[in-house]
Amino acid sequence: MAVKSTNKSNRKGQISRKKSGRVLVAVTAGSTTNAGKVSAVSSKRMAVGVLRKKLKLKQAEFARLVPVSQRSLATLESGTPPTQAVARRLTELQRLMEALLEIIHEESLGTWLQIPNEAFDGLKPIEVIDRGESDRLWEMIYNLRSGNPV
């Protein structure tokens, strides 16, 4: 099936959309409301690589968390917009990382994720996330924030 593109232009730039509504070409800052949406999408795209590097994970490890193939992750890091499901998972990982950074120094976070932890029955925190049990990390964060370490 051929994808029909429609173009909408404004004073500051041009937006190109697929029939599905996904933005293909970013516009310059300062243009209409759509440009604000494009800028937000662009910053989220760049955040994929930044998030992976802050977590100090290799592409293969991070791809398992998202979950996407390593090739898809490389595509996302190069600027391809994520699907809605992948964007949701990236947002969840971003929120978890920000919460962990409140209690763990940034330079230690990647190492902490890779070390088996008795609080998680000897699993590495990265394995807990990979299993879909990030609620266990959120519980730990809650307890530490409230001053009730268990």
Q: What does this molecule look like?
A:
By secondary structure, the protein is mainly α. The chain has one domain. The protein is built from 7 helices and 3 strands. It has helices at 33-54, 59-65, 70-77, 84-101, 106-114, 125-130, 134-145; strands at residues 6-9, 14-17, 23-25. The chain has a 3-stranded antiparallel sheet with strand order 1-2-3, with helices on one face. A hairpin with a 4-residue loop joins strand 1 (6-9) and strand 2. The radius of gyration is 19 Å and the shape is elongated. The N and C termini lie far apart (56 Å). The model is unreliable at 1-46 (pLDDT under 50).
Summarize the structure.
55% of the residues lie in helices and 7% in strands. The protein has 150 residues and is mainly α. The chain is elongated, with a radius of gyration of 19 Å.
For the report, how would you describe the main beta sheet? 3 strands, antiparallel
- Structural class, from helix and strand content? mainly alpha
Radius of gyration from the CA trace?
19 Å
What percent of the residues sit in helical stretches (DSSP H or I)?
40-55%
List the domain count as a whole number. 1
Return residue spans where pLDDT drops below 50 for at least 5 consecutive residues.
Answer: 1-46
